[in-house]
């Protein structure tokens, strides 16, 4: 899946019969997909998440429910721009959380998750738990300024309770970017390095840095754990020295390491 294009955030469904990741194609973030059939992975193909009239779009950071029938991802509402938008302008629009359903073996066009999850503020890094609840990041107005991690309890029929702020025990206020399906541990990101925090009786422990060979001038993000708990997967990107944000990204790659690097910290 790693090519000369920019790739990021690979995830799998629970039983490892489907793989998803994002690739930048013609200035759009496009979710790509492969299926394992009779032990062989099919050719990688893009998934269509928006109508045909949307020429440039954002669909990335997919996360799949345990039953494999629902995908949540970071998207940008096409109502907020026209097809003559520049790459810089598209990436500057506040994103929302979108949802796609798998019907008769095919992933459907996506729609925005309701107002309690998606707002006029930034919503990023959706992660779905085993019971269907969502963790995500948002800079919506709150008693804690800036970006915070939120958890929205799933209550069925596609609905969620009002999201609540989740805080690891740390003065740095690291933000959760991955949580295990059973919510036993989570991975945070601070200064482009990963940390792990464990859920002890409903409280998150002080995050500890995950020891990887972090290279200077690369940003590390999109952590993910295989459902069997054996592999830690993450993405990294390299920016043009004079350009900030996604508009200046020149390289994007996905890596995996043994998950022992995480659990040895406990």
Could you name the ranges where pLDDT drops below 50 across 5 or more consecutive residues?
none
Structural class: mainly beta
State the separation between the terminal residues, measured CA to CA.
32 Å
**Describe the biggest sheet?**
5 strands, antiparallel
User: What integer value in Å does the Rg equal?
Assistant: 18 Å
- Number of DSSP strand runs: 24
Q: Report strand %.
A: over 45%
As a percent range, the share of helical residues equals under 10%
Give the overall shape, derived from the CA principal axes: globular
* Order of helix and strand elements from N to C terminus: EEEEEEEHEEEEEEEEEEEEEEEEEH
The number of helical segments is 2
Overall mean pLDDT stands at: 92
